[in-house]
């Protein structure tokens, strides 16, 4: 999760988020190179006295400064498209989680396991534990197995919400009447926090998401305990 003064991206917990961070760094590097070059040129303009009264056109330089930026843009466009299609790929998921958004809480269903279902509400500030995170912890966490391909289906019961986990590189809109799909792979155990990221109304800030990533055998224990109840 993000803590104080963390202005960059969170550490990734999935291969796709790792790729997103690599792409971000790549694009940022190109951006810095362009900014430095243009900044240098603009700065040096203050100090030159060259005047050319008869300069009206320059075919060669115009050809260069049109084609060169186009080539630089391709270096961003191709990796971007590669990632876009990689994010869209569904790789034979072993668990499906259905996430339904309401004003203003999430509810979840494990359709593969006799439809285990529960609501997940934020813990209010006056009830939070000493080691809890304000506005971020929930009463019922999603438990998911690590090192497994997981599919999530997102929909909404009332208005548009968005199921977003930064560390996993997941952001899917929950839209009433639609069922959206994405998938991810958690490569380490831990707690992963997320928030709704569509402006869905007054309590938009108060419907966080918490994933508890656990080893597969632990997940099987958890799901079978919930099947009995
Ligand atoms: Cu739900 Cu914003």
TrEMBL record:
Primary localization class, coarse: mitochondrion
In terms of Pfam families, this protein maps to:
COX2, COX2_TM
**Any Gene Ontology biological process:** ATP synthesis coupled electron transport
- Tell where it localizes: Mitochondrion inner membrane
**All residue ranges annotated as the Cytochrome oxidase subunit II copper A binding domain in the record:** 92-225
Q: Any idea which UniProt keywords this protein has?
A: Copper, Electron transport, Magnesium, Membrane, Metal-binding, Mitochondrion, Mitochondrion inner membrane, Respiratory chain, Translocase, Transmembrane, Transmembrane helix, Transport
Q: Which reaction does it catalyse?
A: 4 Fe(II)-[cytochrome c] + O2 + 8 H(+)(in) = 4 Fe(III)-[cytochrome c] + 2 H2O + 4 H(+)(out)
| Annotated TM spans | 27-51, 63-87
* Sequence ranges assigned to domain Cytochrome oxidase subunit II transmembrane region profile in this UniProt record: 1-91
Q: How does it sit in the membrane?
A: Multi-pass membrane protein
Task: Spell out the Gene3D superfamilies in the cross-references.
Answer: 1.10.287.90, Cupredoxins - blue copper proteins
Q: Could you cite one Gene Ontology molecular function of this protein?
A: cytochrome-c oxidase activity
Q: Report the domain of life of the source organism.
A: Eukaryota
A GO cellular component annotation in the UniProt record = mitochondrial inner membrane
Keyword rRNA-binding listed: no
Q: Record's PROSITE patterns?
A: COX2, COX2_CUA, COX2_TM
Q: What cofactor requirement does the entry state?
A: Cu cation
The cofactor binding remark recorded in the entry reads: Binds a copper A center.
**Keyword Magnesium included in the entry's annotation:** yes
Entries under InterPro entries matching the protein: CcO_II, CcO_II-like_C, CcO_II_C, Copper_CuA, Cupredoxin, Cyt_c_oxidase_su2, Cyt_c_oxidase_su2_TM_dom, Cyt_c_oxidase_su2_TM_sf
Its annotated function is as follows: Component of the cytochrome c oxidase, the last enzyme in the mitochondrial electron transport chain which drives oxidative phosphorylation. The respiratory chain contains 3 multisubunit complexes succinate dehydrogenase (complex II, CII), ubiquinol-cytochrome c oxidoreductase (cytochrome b-c1 complex, complex III, CIII) and cytochrome c oxidase (complex IV, CIV), that cooperate to transfer electrons derived from NADH and succinate to molecular oxygen, creating an electrochemical gradient over the inner membrane that drives transmembrane transport and the ATP synthase.
Family per similarity comment? Belongs to the cytochrome c oxidase subunit 2 family.
Q: Which NCBIfam families match?
A: CoxB (TIGR02866)
Subunit structure of this chain's protein: Component of the cytochrome c oxidase (complex IV, CIV), a multisubunit enzyme composed of a catalytic core of 3 subunits and several supernumerary subunits. The complex exists as a monomer or a dimer and forms supercomplexes (SCs) in the inner mitochondrial membrane with ubiquinol-cytochrome c oxidoreductase (cytochrome b-c1 complex, complex III, CIII).
**Name the record gives this protein:** Cytochrome c oxidase subunit 2
- Organism in which the protein naturally occurs: Drosophila montana (Fruit fly)
Q: Which gene encodes it?
A: COII
